[in-house]
Amino acid sequence: MGQWIRIINLPQNLILLMIINALGTLYGYYWYADQLKATPLIFWPVVPDSPTSSLFFTWALIVFLRKKHSPYIESFGALLSVKYGVWAVAIILFFDSQSGMINSADWMLMVSHFSMAVESFLFLPRYSFRGRHIAAAGCWLLFNDLIDYTFDVHPWLPSDTYDTTIGWLTACLSGAVILVFLWLKGSKQKRATSILE
């Protein structure tokens, strides 16, 4: 694992990841164009979930390239990427299981969103965020869930039959992501302490 971390942190690989994430972010906002047009302006910040995740992650990569840290940007990029990466894959698989088929667009979306979650974990050793930064990103996740499923501005789904259930499961996923990163933060501190001892 250490070798992979060293490889992924090479400047040329950070630049490549930054470009891939930036292009994915632009495509993601384009993907949400119709929903944004149909949504009141006040709700726009909570509509394009995945593109906003990759926007923060791209921003974090730019910070890393400058050999600096920005804990809030890193925490938002990490937590949002994991949450919406996992959420998108789960939602696509659920609705495709109802129809009995997975088309090529769904495969593309699943691979790209799963990659968002994976790359977020690959940078764990490099993140500088602490509990308060995780709390800030966590508050945004839960606020986003609340607005999405209270005002029905969540990502458009093939059917609204399961909206309430999906809303509760989405909030649970946000809670799980927050707890995982708090646990990882605690584990990282324990390892650092044991090394110092």
Automatic annotation (TrEMBL):
Transmembrane residue ranges: 12-30, 42-64, 76-95, 166-184
Annotated Pfam families: DUF1405 (PF07187)
Protein name: Membrane protein
NAD among keywords: no
PANTHER family according to UniProt: DUF1405 DOMAIN-CONTAINING PROTEIN, HYPOTHETICAL MEMBRANE SPANNING PROTEIN
Record's signal peptide: none
Top-level taxonomic group: Bacteria
Swiss-Prot/TrEMBL keywords: Membrane, Transmembrane, Transmembrane helix
